[in-house]
Amino acid sequence: MIESNTVYFVGSGPGDPELITIKAKKILELADVVIYSGSLLNPKILEYTKEGAEFYDASLIDREKIYHILRDSTRKGKLAVRFHDGDPGLFSTIREQIDKLESDGLQCKVIPGITSLLGAAAAMNLELTLPGNTQTLIITRAEFRTPVPDREKISELAKHGATMAFYLSVHLIADIVEELLKGGVYTKETPAVVVYRATWDDQKIIHGTLGDITKKTKESKVIKTALIIVGDVIEPRTYEYSKVYDAGFTHGYRRAKK
Prior knowledge:
Strand content: 15-25%
CATH class of the largest domain: Alpha Beta
CATH superfamily of the largest domain: Tetrapyrrole methylase, C-terminal domain
Number of helices: 7
C-alpha cells in the first residue's frame, strides 16, 4: 500500500528487467516522479512506468536538485521515487537523502533490490560462502576520491582470505591486485573475475587469477560498470558438504539417522 507524504527509495535490481522485485515494480507503475541513476540503470526498466510520469536523470543533477524534486513533488501529493540501481543499501547515498527529507517532516521508505554482486554470482552459478572454504564475504571499494578508514585498507581486509567483492573500482584494478597480494594470504594463483554489467544483455565475465586479471581486464577495455570478485570460491579445489542436509547431523527440525 502506497503511503502519502512518503518518498520511496527503490532498488532496481542488477539490470535484467525481470529481476526487479514485485513490490518495486508496483511502486514504479504508480510513480508520478522518478529520479533514476542514468549512468547505471537499464533504461528498459523505466518502461514499467505509467504514461505522463516525470523523469530526472540523477547523473546530470546535484544532491540539492534531487532533494528539492523529491520534497516538492511529495508535498504536492505526487508519488516520488528515487530509483537506485541494484540495492539502495549499498553505495547509494540514501542516508544523506533520507536525513534531510525526514528533517523536513517527510517519511521515507526503502524497497530493497537485488544487488549486482548477487546477479554476478548467479550468472556464474557461484556460492560466495562455501563450507570448508570461507563463510565470510567482504564488500568494499578501492580508495580514490572517496577515502576509506585505515582499518579498511584493502591490504588489511585481504588478511582474512575471505571472498572479496569490489564495487566502483574496476578502473583501479592494478592497484587493487597489488594491495590484495600485500595481505599475504591471496597469491597470484587466487581466482579472480571481473563481471561487466551483470545480468544485462551485454554482460561480460572475465575469468582469471590475481596474476593475470589486470592484463585481461585492460585487454577487454572494461573500465566501468563492473564488479571484481576475488577468492577460492570461484574455482574451489575442495569444499565441504553442508552439515544441515547431512543425514547424520541432528538439528532442530530433524534427527540424525543412525
